[in-house]
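Inverse folding, one chain.
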């Protein structure tokens, strides 16, 4: 008798997590695992680039769309959206009965979807646990909560492995996989420099800044003043700057509103979403990554690119020696960016920076771990250590 074909349902609500999920889905499909994808959140919102098109570009089928009721930007919209996700994801899981429900990261949409899996008695596989970001976001609380809901854990570095174990998870449940960002960078073709130059109307022979700044939940009312400080610094410096749009958290509308006011700045190039490969390709060729996205810490060490991390959003996250931390102050931001461009000693330090996030085979490790454990009768029997 042939072994039963494993079925995994993946959930994605934004471009960042999906970019890290792509290598896992592709590796699972190569191993003849049945994969289905639920898409929700910012992927289906035109204000954030309608990034479902990027999923289709990757050749990955979208099996379910969960379009959330649009509401004004306010805190209780999270409650409404979470209830809707739990209800709709729960119905899908009860109907599909997969072997795993795979989620990545620490978004509130992800937590709601994981809760639906818990209530449906479907084992949750979670990538990205153990990270610490004590910068005022919901991320830490949500991430650790998903860890306690999940049956299997895939972590990017040894520190995060130890953190998941400290949360009381049994050793057999935790896989030190590394980051799938490494898989993309080392295994897939990056977009040619000339192609990016033509498409974005930039010149990599001159300094290019890649900039992304998200709102911070605990201080979302300051999003406007915070983004103005960053934009004024970038404007004053005059370097070519590719500016990508923020995530869909409360406060993002204030940031986007300011972007519209700065559209005529000659050195600014606004892009709602570059897409997974183009984003990493720009990162490879740019002079520095600036803002408060996790990619400034997670992916820049792979390319040996300087990063300027603004504010407290990524406080506590593992970082390498290529990162300069600054506050929401335009002069401080200017000085840090100039150091990335002009300080030869710092640039030499960056070229030697350590990458703690694996060697490019994370998706293989993850899929093999899923295959080895899907018959384990203890997946849903959690112990408190």
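Residues assigned per position:
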């Amino acid at each position: 008798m042939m072994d039963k074909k494993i079925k995994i349902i993946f959930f994605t609500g934004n471009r960042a997590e999906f970019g890290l999920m792509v290598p896992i889905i592709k590796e699972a499909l190569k191993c003849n695992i049945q994969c289905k994808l639920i898409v929700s959140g910012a992927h289906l919102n035109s204000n954030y680039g309608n990034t479902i098109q990027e999923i289709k570009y990757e050749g990955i089928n979208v099996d379910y769309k969960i379009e959330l009721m649009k509401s004004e930007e306010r805190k209780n919209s999270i409650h409404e959206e979470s209830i809707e996700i739990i209800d709709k994801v729960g119905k899908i899981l009860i109907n599909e009965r997969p072997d795993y429900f795979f989620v990545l990261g620490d978004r509130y949409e992800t937590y709601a979807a994981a809760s639906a899996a818990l209530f449906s008695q479907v084992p949750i596989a979670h990538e990205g646990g153990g990270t610490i970001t004590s910068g005022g976001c919901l991320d830490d609380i949500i991430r650790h909560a998903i860890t306690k809901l999940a049956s299997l854990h895939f972590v990017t570095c040894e520190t995060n492995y130890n953190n998941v174990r400290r949360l009381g998870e049994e050793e057999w449940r935790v896989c030190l996989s590394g980051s799938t960002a490494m898989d993309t960078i080392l295994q897939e073709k990056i977009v040619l420099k000339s192609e990016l130059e033509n498409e974005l109307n930039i010149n990599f022979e001159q300094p290019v800044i890649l900039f992304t700044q998200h709102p911070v939940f605990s201080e979302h009312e300051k999003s406007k003043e915070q983004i103005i400080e960053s934009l004024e610094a970038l404007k004053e410096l005059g370097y070519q700057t590719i500016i990508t749009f923020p995530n869909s958290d409360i406060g993002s509308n204030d940031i986007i509103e300011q972007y519209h006011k700065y559209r005529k700045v000659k050195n600014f190039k606004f892009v709602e979403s570059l897409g997974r490969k183009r984003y990493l390709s720009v990162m490879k060729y740019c002079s520095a990554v600036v803002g408060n996205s996790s990619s400034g810490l997670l992916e820049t060490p792979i390319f040996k690119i300087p990063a300027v991390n603004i504010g407290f959003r990524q406080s506590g996250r593992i970082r390498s020696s290529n990162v300069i931390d600054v506050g929401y102050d335009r002069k401080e931001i200017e000085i840090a960016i100039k150091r990335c461009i002009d300080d030869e000693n710092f640039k030499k330090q960056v070229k030697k920076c350590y990458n703690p996030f694996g060697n490019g085979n994370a998706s293989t490790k993850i899929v093999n771990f899923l295959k080895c454990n899907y018959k384990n009768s203890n997946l849903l029997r959690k112990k408190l250590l």
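The chain is about 45% helix and 15% strand. The radius of gyration is 20 Å.
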